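Write out a sequence, fold above all:
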Amino acid sequence: MFRGNPQLTGVSEAKVPAKPVLKWTFKTGAEVKSSPAIVGGKVFFGSGDSNLHCLNLTDGKPVWAFKSDGGIESSPLVLDGRVYFGTDNTNVYALDLTTGQKVWSYGLEDKILSSPNWVQAGDQRAVLVGGYDFKLYSFGATTGKTNWVFETGNYINGSPAIGDGLTAFGGCDAIIHVVDVLKGSKQKEIEAGAYIAASGALVDGKLYVGHYENAFLCVDLKEGKIAWTYKDRAFPYMSSPAVTKDRVIVGGRDKRLHCLQRDTGEQVWVFATRGKVDSSPVVADGKVIVGSDDGRLYMVSLADGKELWQYEIGQPVQSSPAVVDGHIVVGAADGSVYCFGEK
């Protein structure tokens, strides 16, 4: 799923080659902003061509494609033999993992860029997704029936992070919403100071998220207040952070990747690219992997931010990399998905 787990931490246990090589590419009919999900040797991702694609991880050969009602920027969630995603039109879909056949769909009142998340609700599972109709929805994973709908004051662009019985997310209403994940009841509202288009990571009761007026925040949900604020150059944050035990790494529209101390928000290092960094970084094997609008995929050292490797794709990379079993898979604005691995 997007960012790898319900907390949206962006950390992978996978090993990564020191110098990855291109294994395969797969061309779709439009740009790929959706971040891939990799499960059971299959790669699932959406494209602006309205298709949800399923490929073999080993060779990039297509397994199936499902034609939806609109472009897909939402990153798929793979759960219990199904694939869940939203479209730029209005529909949330659940597909059969093996065949790509539709199991259910549900129409919202506006487009969906948010990537679905999930939670265990008793003996059932629920899928959460936000929309541009200002609402966060909880669906029964198997039935597609709504459990609850939570209304906010503006667009929900990012994905809801889940942890400790809560879901927390920012919206274009400049508020961090904290909601009971099973009941859909409001627990807290915390003023963020500017609208939030990125997804946050929820770790140990704190939400780490950047906003559009050039600050990155650590929000203490229990205290209901901002614990620390990081400001550098006057550029927004659209990237979602990767959170390790002591670091937070996030891309900025200042064309840089920022690494901060998790407890204080103090800067550890920055890494400069040549284009804005809307791609969300993934931490794996002591390395940070991220795309940039300069058309490159980068790998830098988590310890000191030094460049270890880069690959020039040539078109903006806003998709976030998926890192599994020595493979790195990412989409790009040229409409292709790229897979890198061992020689």
Summary: The longest strand covers residues 21-27. The chain has one domain: 11-341. The chain has a mean pLDDT of 97. The chain is about 0% helix and 50% strand.
